[in-house]
Amino acid sequence: MRPTGRFHLGNYLGAAKNWVELQNGHECFYFVADYHALTTEPDGHKAEDKVFDLAADLLAVGIDPRKSVLYLQSKVPEVAELTLLLSMVTPLSWVQRVPTFKEMAKKHPDNVNLGLFSYPILQGADILMVKGTGVPVGKDQLAHLELVREMTRRFNRTYSPVFPEPRALLTETPLIKGTDGKQRMSKTVGNIVGVTDEPDVIRKQVLSMVTDVKRPRRTDPGHPRSCNVCAYFKLFFDDWEHYWELCRKAQIGCYDKKKILAERLVELFAPFREARAELSPEAVFAVLDEGSAKAREVARRTLRETRAAVGLPDHPDR
After folding, report:
1. pLDDT in tens, 173-212
2. Eight-state DSSP code of residue 33
3. Could you tell me which of 64, 77, 58, 162 has the C-alpha nearest to residue 126?
4. What residues have CB less than 8 Å from 193, skipping those under 6 apart?
5. What are phi and psi of 77, to 5 degrees?
6. What is the DSSP string of 94-128?
7. Which of 7, 255, 274, 295 is 20 to 30 Å apart from 109, CA to CA?
8. Ramachandran region of residue 270, left (φ > 0), alpha (ψ -120 to 50) or beta?
9. Separation of CA 3 from chain center
10. Around 108, how many Cα atoms within 13 Å sit in the side-chain half-sphere?
């Protein structure tokens, strides 16, 4: 996950919640993708606080360094060399067809760099460096993973079968619209609801949510199927149908629903806030350092095997 700041609901429900569950039955590698962050923010100094925020949030929501390897991408520099070697067998046309590049280029028109264009190859190196066999993704990311699978087959055919072909561990990720009710939750857009933020911050974010635009008055019947707040009720309340029915009958107002939702989120995420409050920067970076050392040990073995397959001499530092 890229270090872009504190967790929001989209980060948690779309990725981290599933990551926590996966670590109970798999050998997992999770990392703060600070190399990837450079593709849109080339000044790495600006990411230091965000690295802490992301790592602390991952630990707070349940990523356990006793079960998983949690590391900082840039502390495993072997991934950069593997990216270079993979780029030698990846046709330009394969990378050009990745739709995300055009979207990112529109968002960052003043910094359309080669790293942004070739980031899918770096993604592939991230996976293959630890010989990943399963990658947790949503359906919207299948095209990215298919490119990695093609790169893997191409490398194995060209040299020797060094890498397993990673498969998708598909997750049913709910579409989390932001507080504006129009697009995905994003810190860039500013339409987020926090997970580890203070209760008053969460309340303010929830109370700012756009609700049922077809219901101008409190006495008008509501339309829960098209209401963004009601969609959240379906995610966080077992008895959501009860609230939907109250909405349809105009027995509950939009403001009331937002207040109820805000309190549910504040209560639900209290353990995460408490866990995060106990994490010092020293403790968090110690976890990242230890995880990075473990990841780098794996990466060195992989790169030795990769260099031998390509026909390059072994590096003396490895």
Report:
1. 667 889 999 888 888 788 999 999 999 999 999 999 999 8
2. -
3. 77
4. 8, 9, 178, 179, 185, 202, 205, 206, 209, 265
5. -65, -15
6. HHHT-HHHHHHHHH-TT---HHHHTHHHHHHHHHH
7. 7
8. alpha
9. 9
10. 18
This prediction has a pTM of 0.91
pLDDT, one tens digit per residue, over 34-44 is: 999 898 888 88
| Non-local CB neighbours of 72 within 8 Å, separated by 6+ positions | 31, 32, 34, 51, 55, 288, 291, 292
Strand partners, 31: 71
Residues in the chain, overall count: 318
String of DSSP letters for 200-266: HHHHHHHHT----TT--STTSPP-GGG-HHHHHHHHH-TTHHHHHHHHHTT-S-HHHHHHHHHHHHH
DSSP SS3 for 169? strand
Which amino acid is present at 241? E
**How far is residue 20's CA from residue 107's CA, in Å, rounded to a whole number?**
31
Q: What would you report as the CA-atom Rg of the chain, rounded to the nearest whole angstrom? A: 22
- SS3 helix, strand, coil % of the chain, rounded to 5? 55, 5, 35
Whether the CB-CB separation of 30 and 250 falls below 8 Å is answered with no
